[in-house]
Amino acid sequence: MKVKLITRSEDDFTRERSQDLQKVFRNLDPSLHPQERAHEYVRALNAVKLEKVFAKPFIGALSGHMDGVSCLAKNPRHLNSLVSASLDGDIRLWDVAYKRTVRQFPGHKGAVRGLAVSRDGEHLVSCGDDCVVRLWQIPGSFVGEATGEDVDVPVATYQGKNAFRTVDHHWNSSIFVTGGSQVDVWDHNRSEPTNSFTWGADSIVSVRFNPSETDVFATTASDRSIALYDLRMGTPLRKLIMQTRTNMVSWNPREAFNFTSANEDGNCYSYDMRKLNRATCIHMDHVSAVMDVDFSPTGREFVTGSYDRTIRIFPYNGGHSKEVYHTKRMQRVFAVKFSGDGSYLMSGSDDTNIRLWKGKASEQLGVLLPREKQKHAYLSAVKERYKHLPEISRIDRYRHLPKPVYKATKVRHASDDAERKRASRKRAHSAPGSIPHTPARKKRIVAELE
Amino acid sequence: MVGRKAGPRGHGSMNKKQQQKKMQKKDSGGRSNGKKVGPQLASSLLKELKGDGDRRRKQSKEEEEDDSILPGDVYEYEEQLPEEEAGKNRRYDSVDQLDYELPSDFETTTIFAESDEEGEEEKDDDDEEEEEDAEKKHQNMLQAVTRKASEARQEKASKRKEVMLSESYPESEFNLNPGGKGSVTTVQGISVEELMGSLHETAGFGALRKRMQQLEKRGAPVHPPLPKAMQEKVERKVGYEKTRDEITKWQPQVKMNREARTLFFNQKEEVVPSSTAALAAKFTPTTDMEKEIASVLSESKLGDVKAVEAAEALELNKLTVEEVRERQQRLAKMRSLLFQHEAKAKRVRNIKSKTFHRLQKDHKHRAEDTDAEAVKDAALKQEVKRAEERMTLKHKNTSRWAKRILKRGLKEHEDGSREAIAEQLRTHSMLTRKIQSVKMSSSSEESSSEEEGDEGDEGLAVGGKTRARLLAKAKMATVLALQGDGEAEIPTTGLFALPFMTRAIERKRKESQDEALAVLEQLEEAERGDAVFDKNINVGRAEDDKAWGTSHSGRLGFGDMSTPAMNPNRREKSRDGEDSMDEFDSDANLSDDEEDKIDGLGAWQRFNRMEKSTSNPLPEKEMSVAEVQSVVIGEEDQQVEEVEIFLYIPDLNWLTLAASTGKKKLNGKKSKMVAPLNPAEINAQIPTLLASEEEDGANDQGMKLLDKTMSQEELIRRAFAGDDVEAEFVETKARALDEEVPRVEGPVSLPGWGQWTHIQQKKGQPAWILKEQESLKNKRDAALSRRKDAKLQFVMISEKMDKKASKFCASKVPFPYRSREVFERTIEMPIGRDYNTDKSTRDMTRPSEIKKAGVVIEPLKLNMSIVKNAKLDVLSHVVKRRRERDSGNKASSNQLGKKIRT
Q1: Per-residue confidence at A92, pLDDT binned at 50, 70, 90?
Q2: d(CA A199, CA B755)
Q3: Is the ipTM of this complex over 0.95?
Q4: Residue B214 and residue A386: Cα distance in Å, rounded?
Q5: Which residues in chain B are closer than 8 Å to A212, comparing Cβ atoms?
Q6: Which of A264, B149, B203, B807 has the CA that lies 20 to 30 A from A125?
């Protein structure tokens, strides 16, 4: 006769070392877990609170420039390589990991206005107020700090008639585009622009190539316009005129036809380039002009730097920022960049510093154990699940703001409300239909020019 | 100067001379152009002269020329108006006056040069006015002389400017008269005709001329190019459209990414393990030793690794002779089989006999009928066909062919087409015939068509005659069954041969025989009691069937409405509520088997029944919610109310009476009530219930069974006797209100306090207490009146709020969710490891983006397979939609003005 016994092998449950993990046996019977939702809610609440505790986004500052940082460019091949330029004509190559200048590129007289690195990460294009575009060689590997002795000489110099305001490099070929009084298309190997576009008389403020549909690029100009161009067509495509100037555009690297523009009115507007008559999304929260915008390479979020001395991170389809970064000493932000892996931010501001931030404020840096990863994933999932509950959403939403920004926000809200109220009253007292209801996404668009 | 001065004075005498000169001048101009201009013979004269031949003509030409030089020689020539003055084709510059006084030493060659500068002043004419003019000019001249030289020069320059020609044509051999205002088409320029003149004899001249004529006919002017701004705009527009279309190719990929639960970035690219050959191919010798080895290898012709590899691969690929032979044989066999099949199919196709094809089809069908799946498929196919027919009315003489034939009249055609039309109509009626139940669709069709003859006239009303016939038939079937039972022998082998099995079979058979006998008895009884049929409910099943069937379907019946058609419905019912029904139909009962025999229905009904009975997991006794009746009367009435009445019968079970009436008493509302009743009442009420249900719809004969006298209200009143729902609700509401807005006890005086003298007693409660109580009452009343359900007598809206629970409730349904239920569902199940398996936890908690630390994320690359798939998808969608639209159009056009029977 066979007798069944409940046995427990000693070997299976003895740890060899004290660090060894023991398997936990769980009974998944739902009747044994009557409080499951309550448990998870509490976990979510704790996770949100802990997130606040650990939210320390500032990593460090790269100091060295003697004037406000006007533009940044990241190296598409190397994560730790960043190029910055300042308003005094200084261009620096940084080793981000060590927070030090690796190389300087002297040559520009007057402010440098545009920087771009070629796709292969070997060439740097800079342009500025001195009407010169310079092409530099970026050293492949760098050791030690720049001493100022090894002076880099530009590989090529291109002379223009007017001051240049911006430059961007093609994502595939050796073509770059400058903007100033007109849009010029240059080749590394030609001294003259291969093509020029003019449409209207105003100066071009920014130009950005589309990373995925590489021959398409967008410019913004001081006539409050955003214009689209196609190198294959050899012609401008379309122009969108808004009520206020657009300072910068950034293409979504994962959605070839979508781009986001940083506007002077403190909002960012996302557009589908195929339907320019309305914005796909308005991203608001800044209280002053947005100076720069850059998409994360994941295409799921973008960072903006504003004249109100804050940096914000927006979801690509969200109306409000999910994060705001500021420090006491950071001045007007002129340039922001996401790092190539989408987990860090770089910001250049008027206070001559380049600051390094985390993409997620409370992210744990360094190598994570699988268990830690799982824990983080679980906590964020739980948080996501209960984020609509009042307590959690309140804690999650809360951000401390500098007093001037906070007050300015209030003022903006008040004025917005007043305007809305005025409009509604006007509508109420006018003949029905005489004052049309313009959706907010269309309101700021003046015209779409063909 | 002298000449000039003399000019005006002697101009009358000079007139003739001037004319002469003028003619000379003109002639010289004509000659210089190589053209015949100036004085010529009159056309009539020329015609006359033509007759004399060439020689004569040449002569006359010479004469003409002579004439022109020496006027007044052969004939008088009077020019009516000089061509330049007539201004015919604007061949000449417009000059006011062409008469000048010429100096005595006049030379033809210098005229042009001088006329520019001085010709103006030398003009004069015969007229008096002209004289005055001339005098004026003279004055001007004097002035000009006396004026300052510079001024004069200026004037001259300006004058020169006036005369200056704008030559829009460059000087060239093809444009000989650049100064002329006329273009190429003028006589002085070169015309196309002239150029073509020299080509008269060459081959292909005709074609050329034709083309020229065509060109002239068309003569469309070429539009000037658009202004640059417009041009650029057009370019931009086209460019934008092109780029827009181009960039849309990313759409499917973007969509996919957006919908993805998790995005994976910079994942490791799959490293294809490269072969040694590939590695070797890439290898370039760098060190000395490597180079040396490479040179040795190349010398010995072993260096080319690729070649070696290829040779090896070829060696390995070789097949044996046997393998090849086998393969060839296999292929040959397949080929011959294919050929045979094709040949056979072709032969069959060529056979024109319809009978043959029908037989073949039947054969095929029979093969299909054997298994249930095929039967189901066939039914489905048939249903599709029917639906199609209803939609398109394809066989109802809608085709062009049919219309044409009908238009011409059927008589004129030979029998063939008439038959064809009749055939079509038959098909139509077959396909659109109302079928009572899905189960009747295909298998019963043959049988019903056979029975059409005798049952066709059977409609809603079940005439006594038909009933009799049916009864006879049922009887016959029962007798047959009885005989069959008796004849059937018990198996002698196998499982059924076991003694207990045999016994059981015997018993079963006996039972069924008994039942059959009972049925037979009933049938006979029914035959006898046909007259009293109307008032008796407890009749035999067969009749009952009919009544139920006709009333039950709720639809007007058409065509084939024989008993078999109704039976399935009936049977379902009886199965569902067998027990309860048996209580009512106390007398007669048929077992299922016998019913089958009566019906004579095919195997597939039985199959259905089997399915049905097995699908009911609960034992019938326990679960006897019997849908006794569901009558839909008056389909044309839009407001069909449904009153569901649950009757609780303690001994029996639950009964659901679903009665639908067209009455408007309970307009648009659906009420559900529960009422306890005792069985006695039910027995009394059911007939009346049914009667009242059916009184509206009512022509059915079967409904005569039921009492008509009772009204709907009465019915409901009876059904809910002793059930005061209203009072109960009021009470409940009051209780709820007390709970939510509690009555607060105001201040009261102590009992006995101040009541010991009659004076105080008189005073009653002190004023402040009364006031307080009053105010409290008012407060409560105000709170009650503020409630949402204050004015709604029969509605109770709870306004209870649990503060502690509110912490766990979202204030409203958050954005992406539409309804509360969906949102709640998302947070219903826990996701932690304590409650789920490891894998499901991982699945549920996977973050939306997964990226590797420290690896650059590249921009999106175009995935052509996704693009292609999306294109295919779109294409298929388009095709589908188009097909749908087409069929829709077809249907709608066909159905125009026709009623669709559904």
Answers
A1: very high
A2: 102
A3: no
A4: 82
A5: 250, 859-862
A6: A264
Q: For residue B690, which of B640, B626, B649, B630 has the smallest C-alpha distance?
A: B630
Residue B385 Cα to chain centre, angstroms: 22
Residue type, position B823, single letter: F
Contact between B901 and B389 under an 8 Å Cβ cutoff? The reply is: no
Q: Are A77 and A121 in contact (CB under 8 A)?
A: yes
**CB B422: neighbour CB atoms within 10 A?**
12
The token pair at B210 is 């034709």
Residue B845 has its nearest CB partner, among A340, A343, A378, at A378
Picking from A230, A256, A341, the nearest residue to B853 by CB comes out as A341
Question: Cβ A299–B848 below 8 Å, yes or no?
Answer: no
Shortest Cα distance from A213 to chain B (angstroms)? 7
Report which DSSP code applies to B854.
Answer: T
Q: For residues B50 and B43, is the Cβ–Cβ distance under 8 A?
A: no
pLDDT > 60? residue B668: no
Q: How far apart are CA B711 and CA B723, in angstroms?
A: 19
Task: Compare B342 and B203 and report the one with higher pLDDT.
Answer: B342
Q: Dmax over Cα atoms in chain A, in whole Å?
A: 104
Burial of B858: CB neighbours in 10 Å, binned 0-12, 13-18, 19+: middle
Q: A333 with A349: CB under 8 angstroms?
A: yes
pLDDT tens per residue, range B223-255: 788 888 888 899 999 999 999 999 999 999 999
Closest CA to B701 of B396, B462, B375: B462
Alpha carbon of B869: minimum distance to chain A alpha carbons (Å): 18
Q: Which pLDDT band, with edges at 50, 70 and 90, does B295 fall under?
A: confident
DSSP, collapsed to helix, strand or coil, labels residue A103 as strand
> Given 3-state DSSP classes, what are the helix, strand and coil percentages for chain A, each rounded to the nearest 5?
20, 35, 45
Nearest to A197 by CA among A214, A213, A217, A212: A217
Alpha helices in A59-139 (DSSP H): none
- Indicate the residue of A40, A230, A254 with minimum beta-carbon distance to B239: A230
Tell me whether strands A81-86 and A166-169 are parallel, antiparallel or unpaired: unpaired
- Residues B496-522 have pLDDT tens digits of 777 788 888 888 888 888 888 888 888
B271 touching A (Cβ < 8 Å): no
Q: What is the pLDDT of residues B838-884, one digit of tens each?
A: 999 999 999 999 988 788 999 999 988 888 888 777 777 777 777 77
> Do residues A292 and A248 touch, judged by C-beta distance below 8 A?
yes
**Is residue A136 packed enough to be buried (19+ CB in 10 Å), middle (13-18) or exposed (0-12)?**
buried
C-alpha distance from residue A266 to each of A202, A246, A251 (Å):
22, 10, 19
Distance (Å) of CA B581 to CA B544, B571, B574, B606, B649: 11, 11, 7, 21, 13
Rounded to an integer, what distance in angstroms lies between the CA atom of residue A216 and that of residue A210? 6
3-state secondary structure of B54: helix
Q: What size, in residues, is chain A?
A: 450
Which residue of chain A comes nearest to B813, CA vs CA?
A388
In the structure, what pLDDT confidence band is assigned to residue B214 with cuts at 50, 70 and 90?
confident
How many Å lie between the alpha carbon of A398 and the closest alpha carbon of chain B? 18
Q: Under 8 Å CB-to-CB from B188, ≥6 apart: which residues?
A: B33, B35, B91, B176, B177, B180, B182
Query: To which H or E segment does residue B421 belong?
Result: helix B415-432
Non-local (6+) Cβ contacts of A282 within 8 A are A267, A268, A269, A270, A319, A440, A441
Helix locations, B260-371, DSSP H? 276-282, 288-299, 305-317, 321-350, 354-369
Torsion angle of alpha carbons A50, A51, A54, A59, nearest 10°? Answer: 170
A265: buried, middle or exposed (CB in 10 Å: 19+, 13-18, 0-12)?
middle
Contact A64/A340 with Cβ under 8 angstroms?
no
